[in-house]
Amino acid sequence: MRAKQAFRALATSLFSELPKLILIALFSFAAIDKLMHFAGFVTAVQSYRLLPENLGFAAAIFFIMAELAIALGLITKQWRRPACLAAVLLLTIFTVAYLLVSPEKVCGCWFTLTLSAGGTFHILQNLIFIGLAILTWIDGQPASSSTDASSVLSAKSI
What is the rounded distance in angstroms from the CA atom of residue 89 to the CA atom of residue 126? Predict the structure, then answer.
């Protein structure tokens, strides 16, 4: 009986950690991929024509650093929730910018895997990753806040 409970606990733990692990892999790989193809990524950022051309280089560096910071933040419990919020913000910015330009234009997210081609799949992909970040944010919520809320509710009902 204990082995079965231990297996369930392990499976539950792994299942709850899966969104976090996926996001860490996603942001780490995306940042490294952009660094490896930096000139192409700068070109992709400039092709959106949402920023002045002279800001393309700085924006590319900012995006790479933000992705690395998010990946590192997701690793530590202390920074996990802020990293999740940053991930939602960054993915939302990418999605909105992508929609403003056109879903069929160049996307700078996965040079190695997509050869810089965009499509509506990228929008769906970003929405899924936003959902994973929200799940990770909810999972990282301190346990004491739920007990505090329940104790306040029970105290008011007395």
Answer: 11
CA distances to 19, 35, 128, 133 from 68, in Å: 17, 11, 19, 15
Say how far apart CA 92 and CA 114 lie, in whole Å.
Answer: 20
CB 82 within 8 A of CB 136: no
**Neighbouring residues of 67: CB distance < 8 A, sequence distance ≥ 6:** 27, 28, 30, 31, 34, 90
Buried b (16+ CB within 10 A) or exposed e, 63-78: bbebbbbbbebbeeee
Q: Which pTM does this prediction carry? A: 0.77
Q: What is the pLDDT of residue 44?
A: 82
Q: Any idea where the domains of the chain sit in the sequence? A: 17-140
